[in-house]
Structure formats: structure tokens, C-alpha cells
Amino acid sequence: MMSKSLRGIDLLHLTIDDIRRIFAVDDRGLLEEMAHAARELTRRQFGRTISLYAPLYIANYCENECVYCGFHASQKSMPRSKLTMEQIDRECEALAATGNRSVLILTGESRFHSPPQYIRDAVRIASRYFSYVALEVYPLDEEEYRELYLAGVDGVTLYQETYDRARYDELHLAGPKKVYDYRVSAPDRIARSGIRHISMGALLGLTDWRRDVIALFEHVRSLEKRHPGVEFGLAFPRLRRVADDIHQYQEVSDRDMLKIMCAARLFFPRVGISISTRETPRFRDSILEFGVTKMSAGSSTRVGGYLEGENKYEDGQFEVFDPRSFDEIKAMLRAKGFDPVVTDWRNIVNS
Questions:
Q1: Which residues contact 180 (CB under 8 A, 6 or more apart)?
Q2: Where is 23: in which H helix or E strand?
Q3: pLDDT tens column, 53-81
Q4: What DSSP letter does each residue of 61-108 carry, written as one string?
Q5: Cα–Cα distance between 195 and 344 in angstroms, integer?
Q6: How far apart, in Å, are the Cα atoms of 347 and each of 104, 130, 182, 188?
Q7: How buried is residue 247: exposed, middle or buried, by Cβ count under 10 Å (0-12/13-18/19+)?
Q8: How far is 191 from 228, CA to CA, in rounded Å?
Q9: CB-based contacts of 250: which residues, under 8 Å, 6+ apart?
Q10: Do 336 and 285 touch, CB atoms closer than 8 A?
Q11: What 8-state DSSP symbol labels residue 316?
């Protein structure tokens, strides 16, 4: 595999300074070299496998005022709901019936409506249906993460949204999420709790994506050094503007996304990279070769959506742009020469 680029950058041994140089220029030749190197490195590290998962929304109450999000607390047009344990069991059964064996449980950020005990009980139910159970919930204390780990949690996804403190404060008007430091320190608490997998990301477009991606890379690299036994993952969701938001944001093009994904793969050769149904089918299919190892399939972002057959909220922020079913995603992957994997982690015992 070719290592040196046309600009003299060693693509297989990138530094943060190299990333800054790459992000500072619009060089088609360099991007083509990065794409080639990222594709070859991904095949060498992961083969042709793509792990599949689906989100499971069990509640959508929120206590935060994030101006860019359709879930925010004062959004009165958003119907709020929370599943009972019996309903969660039925949702898990319906989702598992599709063949999926990896689930990401989401609640919305409300400790009052979705306390840790509620999440713990949901995890115990999900563990009966799925071999891999992950969470995307509000940040918790270390002991709370530890309790969830013992209940069966394999991984946690947490987005910092933006690493620009001033911008973070401007966009998060009120609620627990406004406390930047508690959120940015959560991955350390997760790692100390015993949870083995941590997925991280920034919501691209809130500010200059270059600064946020570099800060994310630096954050993950520092965590890898402090917690060598933990596997980290990356995701790069793009902002979708909601109707009542008047703030100015930065555009992130498909070409920008390709550069980000390739840089992530080359800087983190063994880290998993996810692509969600927030992206269009065309983009998801085209980006697969360049670092992706995990993707959501057959997703519903509605609480109770798998039993109801509803696949999205019309809030502009969490809308599903890839409506293909689990089986359709598997068929697409096989047609492209990939091996779809529905069970990539067998949780023997959490203790």
C-alpha cells in the first residue's frame, strides 16, 4: 500500500498536524490518495464485513433547550411518550424478529422521565433478545454506568455535539446539557465503569467542522491512552436544520464527509466507524468503501415505532433519510461484496 502522498504526508502514520494540513486544503489528488489508502486499510483491518444495528427509542422526553434539535423541551408540537416495560419487551420482540441482534437504546435527555433505573430495566429486557446492547442516553455518574454495565450494557454512544465551548454555550440555552464539562468528561466515567465500547462524535455543522473533527480526534486519542482496554468508535452525523431555528450553521458537503471519513480511518486504523440512516441511501452506499464498519438498518426513530410500523419523526433533526428495511440493507451489502454481520459481540457475562 502506498504510504506517502503527493504532498509528502505519510498517510499511514498521520499526526494531528497532518490532519490540520489536509483539512486546510481542497486538493482533489490528495483526497483520491486518501480514499485509496482508507479503502485498503479498512479491508486489511476489517475485511469486507459491515456490522448492522438498529436504534430503539423507548422515551423522548427532554429537559434541555438545544436550539438545533426538534426534541428540545419547549417544543410543544412534539408528542411525548415513554414505553412501559411490557411495551419495551414487545418492541424488542418485533425488532428481533427482523433478524437484527444489535440494538442501540435511546431515551431523550430527561433524568426525571427516564431515570437510570428505568434504563437498567430496559437493558435487562433487551439483553434477552439481542447479543449486543448499547445506549445513547444523557450523561451519567460513574456508578450509574457501572450499574448499567452489570445489567448487560456492552456499549455507550455519546456525542459532544461541538467542542467549541463558546458555541456550545450559545446553542444549549438551558437544562443539564448546558454543563459542558460534565458531558465532555463522560467517556472517562464510562470507561472506568467497565463498559467495553464507547462511540463518540460531533454534530457536524454547528461550527467549523474542521475544528470539531480535530478536537474529536484529539479527545479519542487521549482516551485511548488512558483506557487501553476500551474499544472506541466514531460517527459523523450532519446537522439537519429544524424549522424554528434561526441560527447560522456551517455546510458540510458530501466531499467534506469523504475527507473526514478517510482521515478518521487513516488516523485510527482499528476504530469502528458508523454511518446512520440520517444520510441518504445514495450517500451511505457510496461511502461504504472508505472506512465504514457499522451502519444502522431498518431504523425507526419513533417511540414504539417497530410495532406501529412508523419509521420517523417529522422534526427535521432525527428524520430517517434511508427507509430501507433490514433485509434490503443486507441485500445491498451483499450485492456490493460486503458481508453483513448481525452479531459482532457475544456478551458472556458482565461482572
A1: 165, 168, 169
A2: helix 16-24
A3: 999 999 999 999 999 987 888 887 788 99
A4: -----BTT-TT-TT-TTSPP-B--HHHHHHHHHHHHTTT--EEEEE--
A5: 16
A6: 15, 10, 29, 22
A7: exposed
A8: 10
A9: 205, 206, 207, 208, 209
A10: yes
A11: S
SS3 at position 95: helix
CA torsion angle 309 103 241 264 (round to 10): -140
Give this prediction's pTM.
0.93
Per DSSP, the residues of 209-222 read HHHHHHHHHHHHHH
The residue whose grid cell reads 465532555 is 184
**DSSP H/E element including 235:** strand 231-235
Q: For 209-218, what is each residue's pLDDT tens digit?
A: 999 999 999 9
The 10s digit of each residue's pLDDT in 233-292 is: 999 999 987 767 778 899 999 999 999 999 999 999 999 999 988 899 999 999 999 999
Q: Report the Cα 205 to chain-centroid distance in Å.
A: 16
Domains of the chain: 49-252+263-341 (3.20.20.70)
- Please state whether beta strands 272-275 and 155-161 pair in parallel, antiparallel, or not at all (unpaired): unpaired
